[in-house]
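Reviewers of the previous submission asked for a worked example of the structure-prediction workflow described in the proposal, so we include one complete record here. The input consisted solely of the amino acid sequence. No template or homolog information was supplied to the procedure at any stage.
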Amino acid sequence: MGGRFCTLACPAPTRAHTKDRHMERIETRSTSGSTSGSKSGRRIGHAVAALALAAGASSALAQRTVDFSGQTLGATPTAPGVVFSMFNATTLASIPWGSAGYIGGGIVSISSSSTPGNAVQSREQSAGFSPEGLRMTFTIPQSLVSFTVGVGEPSVNNATYRVRGFNSAGTMVFSRDYSVGQASTLNANTLVEVVPTAGQTVTRVDVLSLITASLVNGEYREVLDTLKYVGDSTAPVVTVTSPADESCVSPTSVALNGVSHEPDGVYANEIFDVAPTASGPWTVIASTNLFVPPPGGLLYNWNTSSLASGWYYLRLRTRNIDQLETVVVRRVFVDRAAPTAQLRSPAIGQVVGGNTCFDGSAGESPCGITNYTLAQRPASGGSFTTILTSTTAVTNDPLGNWNTTSLADGAYEVRLQATDQFGNVSTQIRPVTVDNTPPVAIISNVVGCSMVRGDSPITIRGTVSDTNMGGWNLQYTTGTSLWTTISSGTSNIVNGVLGVLNPVGLPECAITLRLVAVDQSSVNCSSGTNRTEDQVSFNLDNPEVCSIDFNQDGLFPDDNDLLDFLRVLAGGECP
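From that input alone, the workflow returned the following structure tokens.
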């Protein structure tokens, strides 16, 4: 029996196994007035929703009242922004209060006054003789100065005081005489209001007794009490160095640092309050009298432990005794919430291999994070091993890569952990499977370059298996055609039937079989899987089909047909 063979040679190698393994408003104001122009001429601010710092000064300045009751008897009178002295009644020349030759006076105790207690009395040049007047020089120009005057010696009859006011150029802009009547005790009952002529201010006020003789010792000294004047036209100086505006602060305690002082007046107190919005309502959380001059220091420790996470306005109001106030506001975020730690990939239970990419989010709004870490451990437990640490927040983007090639195949847990600056932590843990082992794919019953008869279906046997099988395909090609699938599946087969090739219609030539298997592993950031391919070639022999009339003499059956049949059966060719 003869046969026709194609000249196509067997592919080399005859069996091939290939295995492939495939990212500052500062507001300066009077507590009773509206804000106006800037004290410093500066404006540091931000949008309405954020904290602002602005500057201004009240047009109605508060008056300061001094009653001298807290000052020591016999001492030189003192008051912020005022210098007390005497003056010569003839020349108007100033005489310093402590000048030699003057006795008595100073702070004295009086029996009757609008504010009973102590008062100021001019000194004597000598016993029983005091022609000098009492002078007050103000640091700040005054539009109104008021005080009370009275007798400086018991039993003075109808004493009269001449009060004059002078501007900064020395020009007299106010003059009036005040009669204080008669008294049996030292007193200061008559009200004096120094109101300069329109458009003028006074910086000096002189008080002079017009008495030239008295019933007792010839004394005619001035007595003054309950002095009211503007002691300061500028509010306290306040700066806040921390926390910064629009910053995140601790959910337990916040140190407010800076400067709060009154360089040209008298400091009074500070008030700290907090509000959920810039318009309030404001809640007072503390009131202190902590004077903090330059270079600054701790102003207040704000206890935030009872506050919910969110934005707050923290306000500091510093006042002087003239009720001028400077306000500093900080908009801060109390950060009690844990940051975001969210994995998008790998998915829960995903099979991975090679270089595995993590994707997701690790961050916090508006405060950000100090770091996030990726770590892994066997699913059986134990300590996590750090894969990487980063200080950069990520939102729905690559978090980092994990090289799994040094790990044994099996079940693992991966962890994403994000930490913010205040120790708030978020953690996400999910299970994954590491699989870096390619599938087994073997065609076992076809010998390379063997002759296979094509007169009946060809059964192909072998093994295709993997712990995490993805799928397999059994295919063939004649060398001049594309790969044609014989069979496919997703189940493991061990030493079993892979498929059956029907050779009908196939040419007599070298046929190549290919078995390709892939697993479920997402290898190298999902660019491929673990893959195994097995190829084997064989020669297909399609025997010629003889006519039933073997000798083709038109007669069947006859003896010659039987002889030809036996010859073909022995391997001969058809007649």
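The longest strand covers residues 172-183. We consider this example representative of the routine output the project will generate in years two and three.
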